[in-house]
Amino acid sequence: MALLEWRDEFATGIPSIDYEHRNLIGLINDLHTRAMRDPDKGPVEDTLGDIHANISAHFALEEKVMRDLDYPQYDSHKAEHEALLDDIRAIMDKVHADREFDYRTSLADCLRDWFGDHFKGADSRLHRQTGH
Cα(50)–Cα(113) distance, rounded to whole angstroms? Predict the structure, then answer.
């Protein structure tokens, strides 16, 4: 079962951003499937690294689009991005340091809730602002 499903309400109307959102959902679902099947932290750590790198690159694109559009809520949107990256980095550090990692109550909840809220909130406002 997928942790996150793409919904039309997640769309920003900006093709490059929506494409990357779909890819990020795929990576998160891959991590979820892997972690549920195999609790070994090695593959989880590798996939977490991939997710962190892809999210960082995605946020750079999204922030460039916002700067190009002179988006008025740029600072608060960027702050949300930085907070998520900090949260993922903290989880990566915890996974690396601890032998036991409860995936279900930490990373899964964090990513599902954050992406759902961010897509419906900050990214939805970006969509309305740009008129896409």
Answer: 19
Cα 110–63–55 angle (5° rounding)? Answer: 35
Total structural domains in the chain?
A: 1
Is residue 12 a contact partner of residue 125, using CB atoms and an 8 Å limit?
Answer: no
Q: Enter the pTM of the model.
A: 0.77
Cα 107 from Cα 32, distance rounded (Å): 9
Domain ranges, residue 87: 8-130
| 28 within domain boundaries | yes
What are the structure tokens assigned to 106, written together? 């930490």
Determine, yes or no, domain membership for 1: no
Q: What is the pLDDT along the chain (132 residues), one digit of tens a residue?
A: 677 888 887 778 888 888 988 888 888 888 888 777 776 767 778 888 888 898 899 899 889 988 998 989 899 989 988 988 898 888 888 777 875 556 655 667 777 777 767 666 666 666 566 555
Rounded Cα distance, 35 and 82, in Å: 25
